[in-house]
């Protein structure tokens, strides 16, 4: 059985990305690049002038473009392999960059960020292993998307909770709840990615065994 044939079996979620087009200059890809370019601006606003209002505005624009690029890709028939890689990359950069900035500003504890960074390192190793066995990167799991959604709501609320006054006291429980749930789903999605990757590696090894 060839690798292409193997991808049409039980591992159907992984190959769909490999079957996408090679288009580069598309509207969805442009939106994803815009989101990536917003990461250093977002960090500077948080750590430089600490212009939290503008930082939240950048985060909101990122959330809108995250929703829009997927919708436009389907509506315009412009889904591509590049877009399938840029979209989760932008999500991860925003999450990790924001949490690192929050540690520097004492908004979240270091152990929480360490767990998220460890998750990304594990998935980087998983990606290298999959490439070694001829598999494309895994599709983004819905739990990962749900975690990103929760984080996008939690981050601006965490900034408000870090302040003083009645508003900070009111939003703090909600902000921490969203952050904890988002972190739990983010780590759980990594476990599911690893389980799926193990299955693909076993399938690849089985294909190499002579009949």
Automatic annotation (TrEMBL):
This is CDP-diacylglycerol--glycerol-3-phosphate 3-phosphatidyltransferase. It comes from the Bacteria. GO terms for molecular function: CDP-diacylglycerol-glycerol-3-phosphate 3-phosphatidyltransferase activity. It is found in: Membrane. One of its GO terms (biological process) is glycerophospholipid biosynthetic process. Belongs to the CDP-alcohol phosphatidyltransferase class-I family. InterPro entries: CDP-alcohol_PTase-I, CDP-OH_P_trans, CDP-OH_PTrfase_TM_dom, CDP_ALCOHOL_P_TRANSF_CS, Phosphatidylglycerol_P_synth. The chain crosses the membrane at residues 110-130, 142-162, 174-195. One of its GO terms (cellular component) is membrane. Pfam families: CDP-OH_P_transf. The lineage of its organism: Bacteria, Bacillati, Actinomycetota, Actinomycetes, Geodermatophilales.
């Amino acid at each position: 059985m060839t690798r292409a044939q193997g991808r049409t079996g039980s591992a159907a979620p992984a190959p769909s990305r490999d079957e996408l087009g090679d288009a580069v200059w598309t509207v969805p890809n442009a939106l994803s690049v815009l989101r990536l370019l917003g990461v250093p601006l977002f960090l500077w606003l948080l750590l430089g002038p600490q212009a939290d209002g503008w930082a939240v505005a950048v985060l909101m624009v990122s959330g809108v473009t995250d929703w829009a690029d997927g919708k436009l890709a389907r509506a315009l028939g412009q889904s591509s392999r590049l877009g399938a890689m840029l979209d989760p990359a932008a999500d991860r950069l925003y999450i990790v960059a924001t949490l690192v900035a929050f540690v520097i500003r004492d908004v979240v504890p270091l152990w929480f960020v360490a767990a998220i960074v460890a998750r990304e390192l594990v998935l980087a190793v998983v990606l290298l292993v999959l490439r070694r066995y001829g598999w494309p990167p895994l599709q983004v799991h819905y739990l990962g998307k749900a975690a990103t959604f929760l984080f996008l709501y939690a981050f601006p609320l965490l900034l408000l909770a870090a302040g003083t006054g009645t508003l900070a006291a009111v939003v703090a429980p909600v902000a921490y709840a969203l952050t904890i749930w988002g972190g739990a789903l983010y780590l759980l999605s990594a476990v599911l990615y690893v389980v799926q990757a193990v299955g693909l590696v076993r399938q690849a090894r089985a294909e190499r065994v002579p009949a």
